[in-house]
Amino acid sequence: METYITKTTVTKDGKIAIKLPFRAGHIVEVVVRDLQKKDRVNPYPLRGLPYRYEKPFESVAEDDWEVLK
User: Fold this and answer.
1) CA-CA distance, 61 to 25, in Å (whole number)?
2) What is the mean pLDDT of residues 13-37?
3) CB 7 within 8 A of CB 35
4) Exposure of 48 by Cβ count < 10 A (0-12 exposed, 13-18 middle, 19+ buried)?
5) pLDDT given for residue 69 in this prediction
6) In whole angstroms, what is the distance from residue 15 CA to residue 9 CA?
């Protein structure tokens, strides 16, 4: 399966025109994404928030180690 990605602008009448590198008769899948959408979900919701370590030098999960029992 060959993938071809291009960008174009929608005209005033809601149409787009693209030139594809495929021959006539090929079946293709068309996916349209809005690249200007302003209200996208933030993939890093905690970025920039303050953080604090309660006990930075304490062992983590020390009770889970079987060799220490």
Assistant:
1) 61
2) 87
3) yes
4) exposed
5) 67
6) 9
* SS3 assignment for the chain: CCCCCCCCCCCCCCCCCCCCCCCCCCCCCCCCCCCCCCCCCCCCCCCCCCCCCCCCCCCCCHHHCHHHC
Higher pLDDT, 15 or 36: 15
Cα four-point dihedral sign 17, 15, 40, 31? negative
CB 48 within 8 A of CB 42: no
Q: Residue 23 phi/psi, 5° resolution?
A: -80, 160
pTM over 0.70? The answer is no
How far apart (Å, rounded) are the C-alpha atoms in residues 15 and 50? 46
Mean pLDDT of 38-62: 84
Q: Which of 3, 5, 8 is nearest to 34 (CA)?
A: 8
